[in-house]
Specification:
three-stranded antiparallel sheet, alpha+beta, two-stranded antiparallel ribbon, 5 helices, 5 strands, extended, 132 residues
C-alpha cells in the first residue's frame, strides 16, 4: 500500500507496486499516451468528457480479442479433459460462439459517463458500431 502525491495505490504480487509507481511518476506522453490515441479521440467525439463520477472508454477491437481468447480457452480446457457434462456444454458453446473472423470489426469505440445532477443519477453511453 502506498499513499502520497494524491494517489492511493494498492498492489499485490511481486513488483506490481514498483511498476505502478514508475508509470505514475513517468506517464506516457505524445503519441504513446492513451489520450492522444485514435480510440480516445473517437470516444471524445461520441461523448465529450465532462466532470463526472465515472467516465469509461472501451476499445471494441481489443475487447473482441478477449472474446476470441475465451473461445480458445474453452477449446483448450475441453482438450485437457473435463467431465462429460462440461465437455457437452463446451461443444454447444463453441457452436454458437463467434469465430475470430466473425468478430473482426464488429465493435468500435464505446464510451460512457455517470453524473449526478438535479435529475438524479444520469448514465449515458454511446457505442460506435461499424456498418456491416
Amino acid at each position: 500500500v502506498f499513499l502520497g502525491r494524491g494517489y492511493l495505490i494498492v498492489g499485490m504480487g511481486d513488483g506490481v507496486l514498483e511498476s505502478t509507481l514508475t508509470a505514475l511518476r513517468n506517464p506516457l506522453a505524445g503519441d504513446a499516451a492513451f489520450n492522444s490515441s485514435d480510440v480516445a479521440r473517437r470516444a471524445h467525439e461520441l461523448l465529450p468528457p465532462e466532470p463526472s463520477m465515472a467516465y469509461q472508454v472501451l476499445d471494441g477491437a481489443r475487447y473482441t480479442k478477449v472474446i476470441g481468447q475465451f473461445r480458445s480457452l474453452m477449446t483448450t480446457a475441453a482438450a485437457g479433459g473435463v467431465p462429460d457434462a462440461q465437455a457437452e456444454l463446451i461443444k454447444a458453446l463453441e457452436k454458437i460462439f463467434p469465430t475470430d473472423q466473425e468478430l473482426e470489426g464488429i465493435l468500435g469505440v464505446g464510451v460512457g459517463g455517470m453524473q449526478i445532477n438535479n435529475h438524479g443519477v444520469v448514465l449515458r453511453s454511446v457505442s460506435d458500431l461499424p456498418a456491416p
